[in-house]
Structure to design on (479 residues):
């Protein structure tokens, strides 16, 4: 072990036990700081304990050397009545924090190997964020961290880092408007679909995504590598679909050409994913299981949100009809999908038109579930719901909101059909089931987090409870 490395040699490829006492010195700070972070999922329930999964010194953390240290930590957080979650932390260490880094302060370590050092959020420090980029540029391992660069990526050095200010559940750093590094906060074993899908799409030549240039994983800790971060090409001068749609609503502008182009882009991504990654066919048993899970979620939501109860019986028909479809021998094609598609997950770029981002799926669902093939209509339903949200964001019952939403939902479906040959509305049972499932999720979310927005999904609930859309194009002749 070198003099400055108190954890372990930085060249070893084995997973040595983390430094003794490290957690002891950090726990009081983290207990205070973690619940205040936007990405911390366990708010509202006290932390009952920590477990150190790994600690890797990317730059020496030592009071004697006077340069900032960089410590990578995977930390298990224990809370009552819940499975522990594993979080990724990048901690900077200095003897004194310069004033510019004051907002990044976590606290002062007392005891353990970091005793006397100031601990802060490393990604706020351009020097440490720059070091992480350097590490991503040069493939290889540092203990349990494995860094990989896509062949031919040619990542330059010295790109100025800045922390993204986007409201997000992970943390991103932008390097010189050339790359964006997303550091996942909640870590699960296995490939994160955000890397898995965007890499598969990029390798298939898709222009509808931000191609990954490098990534890093934790290896030798779980039964399979866990994705920790992805460096992707930054899309400069892009605008997200949610902001663009809101502006169109506010200004009374027609957004249907954009909605149609977004439908085309979505269908192109689906086609590329179906070619690049495994597909499946859902038959009676799986379809019935799918319908039963949706019905269960409805029951749970209706228990929690009284406003949903009067619609429960009618909403259940959406899932009953889906189960009947399976019972009649109808099969449904499934493939890898985006998993959490909405207007905020689409960036309109000057060079590539619409690009889809953030393929990690719904973060609240377990990773194996997010990686399972699903009917692509799941993504379509997400986007259709998003147009409804955009139309009603100012006033859920604004005159004209329903018509705006319907026009743009239709334009999206027409665009999807332009590129895929199939209008999603030609499968009314499937789309109603998925839209209902999504609207039920939204009702629960809004009731818990933004009660003022509850009328938005409730208006969808009323529409969906009334039965399949009478204006939908004719049914598929093959069904
Ligand atoms: N390749 C890119 N080029 C330009 N901007 C990007 C790129 N990727 C992401 N962004 C910006 O960063 C924001 C956050 O990215 P992303 O959605 O991937 O993070 P997230 O942590 O998964 O967010 P969420 O909590 O919404 O799931 C996006 O809304 C977008 O504004
Ligand atoms: Mg996300």
């Amino acid at each position: 072990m070198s003099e400055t490395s108190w954890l372990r040699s930085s060249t070893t490829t084995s997973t040595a036990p983390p430094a003794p006492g490290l957690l002891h010195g950090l726990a009081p700070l983290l207990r205070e700081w973690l619940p205040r972070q936007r990405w911390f999922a366990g708010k509202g329930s006290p932390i009952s304990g920590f477990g150190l999964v790994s600690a890797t010194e990317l730059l020496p953390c030592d009071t004697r050397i006077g340069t900032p240290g960089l410590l990578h930590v995977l930390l298990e957080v224990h809370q009552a009545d819940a499975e522990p979650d594993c979080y990724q932390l990048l901690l900077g260490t200095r003897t004194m924090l310069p004033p510019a880094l004051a907002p990044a302060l976590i606290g002062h370590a007392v005891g353990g190997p970091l005793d006397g050092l100031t601990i802060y959020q490393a990604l706020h420090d351009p020097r440490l964020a720059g070091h992480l980029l350097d590490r991503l540029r040069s493939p290889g391992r540092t203990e349990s961290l494995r860094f990989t660069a896509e062949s031919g990526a040619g990542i330059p050095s010295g790109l100025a880092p800045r922390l993204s200010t986007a409201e997000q559940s992970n943390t991103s750093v932008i390097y010189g408007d050339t790359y964006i590094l997303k550091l996942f906060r909640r870590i699960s074993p296995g490939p994160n679909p955000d890397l898995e899908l965007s890499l598969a799409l990029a390798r298939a030549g898709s222009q509808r995504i931000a191609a990954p240039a490098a990534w890093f994983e934790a290896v030798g800790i779980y039964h399979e590598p866990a994705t920790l971060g992805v460096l992707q090409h930054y899309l400069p001068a892009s605008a997200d679909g949610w902001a663009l749609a809101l502006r169109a609503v506010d200004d009374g502008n027609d957004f249907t050409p954009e909605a149609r182009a977004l439908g085309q882009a979505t269908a192109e991504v689906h086609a590329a994913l179906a070619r690049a990654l495994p597909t499946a066919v859902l038959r009676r048993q799986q379809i019935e299981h799918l319908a039963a899970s949706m019905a269960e979620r409805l029951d749970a939501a209706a228990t929690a949100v009284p406003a949903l109860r009067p619609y429960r019986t009618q909403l259940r028909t959406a899932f009953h009809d889906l189960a009947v479809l399976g019972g009649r021998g109808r099969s449904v094609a499934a493939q890898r999908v985006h998993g959490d598609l909405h207007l905020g997950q689409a960036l309109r770029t000057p060079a590539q038109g619409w690009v889809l981002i953030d393929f990690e799926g719904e973060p609240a669902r377990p990773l194996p579930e997010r990686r399972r093939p699903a009917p692509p209509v799941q993504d379509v339903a997400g986007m259709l719901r998003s147009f409804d949200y955009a139309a009603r964001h100012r006033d859920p019952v604004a005159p004209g909101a329903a018509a705006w939403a319907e026009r743009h939902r239709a334009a999206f479906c027409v665009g999807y059909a332009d590129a895929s040959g199939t209008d999603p509305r030609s499968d009314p049972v499937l789309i109603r089931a998925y839209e209902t499932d999504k609207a039920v999720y939204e009702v629960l979310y809004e009731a818990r987090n933004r009660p003022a927005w509850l009328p938005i999904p409730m208006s969808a609930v009323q529409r969906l409870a009334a039965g399949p859309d009478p204006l939908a194009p004719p049914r598929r002749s093959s069904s």
Notes: The domain at 239-465 is CATH 3.90.1200.10 (Aminoglycoside 3'-phosphotransferase; Chain: A, domain 2). Residues 1-17, 474-479 have pLDDT under 50 and may be disordered.
